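Quick one: structure tokens for this chain, please?
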Amino acid sequence: MELLIKKTVLTFLLAAGLITASAQVNPSQVFANSYQYESSGDYQKAISELNSLNGFDYHKFLRMGWLYYLSKDYESSKKFYQKAVDIAPKAVEALLGLCYPLEAQKKTDELEAVYKKILLLDKVNSRVNYALGNIYYYRKNFMEAEKYFDLVQQMYPFDHYSTLMSAWTKYFLGKKNDAQRLFNTVLIISPTDQSAKDGLNLVK
């Protein structure tokens, strides 16, 4: 009898809208299900799981941005990453996430703007400094590229790619002694690097 009364009360409350089905949703289980669908490559089901969740909006939107990126729906990916940024404007991870669809779409100008926002929050972020250096390098703006590559190379002197890009940037700026030193450094890190060997032949 008591069980019947409890069921009757619960049915009444649901019908009256005083409690909702969403209140019964376990957030950690929703995310667990979403991760499971992602691991099997079913990104749409992974997204659908998250749609059932009320609350945890930042985390939900960040994850949906990632899932839409994996499904190559870059416009939706940008939209949800931007929602995460709007909720937590000081969250570097949300801005880094926004870079994924922009990189896929090769939207260099938008990427440049996002990278600079990240550096306002995290000025020594090596990934972003390197990426900005690349943007300016391929625009042949070597003076601007030099600042970013040098910063990464100073923080990570044994990093192959930033050292190589810094070397080529010095070369194009006419700083041949610096370029030679850096090309030689690349060959310590990666003795078979053909690009560094080519650079050394040019500065000799």
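The two ends are 95 Å apart (CA to CA).
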